[in-house]
Amino acid sequence: MATAAFEAITEDFEFLEDWEDRYRHVIEMGKAMDPLEDAFRVPATKVDGCASQVWIVPQVQDGVFSFRGDSDAMIVRGLVAVLAALYNGLTVAEVQAVDAHAEMARLGLNEHLSAQRSNGVRAMIARIQGYTG
Fold first, then answer.
1. Has residue 32 got a pLDDT over 70?
2. Is the confidence at residue 110, as pLDDT, over 80?
3. Beta-sheet strands, E only, within the chain
4. How high is the mean pLDDT of the chain?
5. What is the DSSP letter of 26?
6. Angle of the 19-32 helix axis to the 74-87 helix axis, nearest 10
7. Can you give the pTM of this predicted structure?
8. How far apart are CA 54 and CA 51, in angstroms?
9. Alpha-carbon distance 30 to 103, whole Å?
10. What is the pLDDT of residue 2?
């Protein structure tokens, strides 16, 4: 299960055959996100297990999940944007049903991220699912 926003990313990735172009696209997605205010960059919102600093601020309104996030690393900020596209707008039950690792594998990211970045993505996914679980 994936949102329309995430499906659009998979279509973009199919069009962008070169991994350098795909990385640039992910970075551009991160740049397009609104920055997280300093008030939300606190230990309670920080994701442990990431080499970079990452913050995720969840919200559930009328049973619909969304989150805002940020990172001090451009590629990771882009990965936050990819995860936002995957999860934002789903119900809490749908968030729990998403196989995020399989969805991210559709983008081919598993083979192209460093071990540290892959661990960070897993930590972000665990944090998001922990909010709704």
1. yes
2. no
3. 54-61, 64-71
4. 93
5. H
6. 80
7. 0.94
8. 9
9. 19
10. 74
Structure tokens at 100: 């995020």
What's the distance, CA 91 to chain centroid? 17
Beta-carbon contacts of residue 128 (< 8 Å; ≥ 6 apart) = 56, 58, 67, 83, 87, 95, 100
Q: Report pLDDT for 1.
A: 64
d(CA 92, CA 133): 8
Residue ranges of domains in the chain, CATH in brackets? 4-132 (3.90.1010.10)
Q: Tokens representing 102?
A: 């399989």
Taking the C-alpha atoms of residue 15 and residue 34, their distance in angstroms, rounded to an integer, is 26
Hey, how many other C-beta atoms are within 10 angstroms of the C-beta on 35?
11
Active site residues: 50
Length of the chain: 133
**69 has a pLDDT exceeding 90:** yes
CA 34/CA 100 separation, integer angstroms: 23
